[in-house]
Request: fold
Amino acid sequence: MSNLNTAAPGGEPVFTGWRLDKDDLCVAKLCAFREKDRDFVRALVEARLVDRTAIEARLTTVAPRYQRAADAAARWIATL
Reply:
């Protein structure tokens, strides 16, 4: 998204603002696999603010270079 809200105060340069989908955010956090990120995702799942099965499905689409992290994340989220 680029508009006046993503521009520097003088109007230039205009930056691009990215809006992550909530499930994609959880995938990124789980691939980092820090305790605070797992706690964050667990809280969202328990509050039913995200769909665990959607996150599991997205983990299968992670780029091959992050596959080990995605596999570990998939094993972890399956325990919730």
Summary: The CA atoms of residues 20 and 36 lie 19 Å apart. The chain has a mean pLDDT of 90.
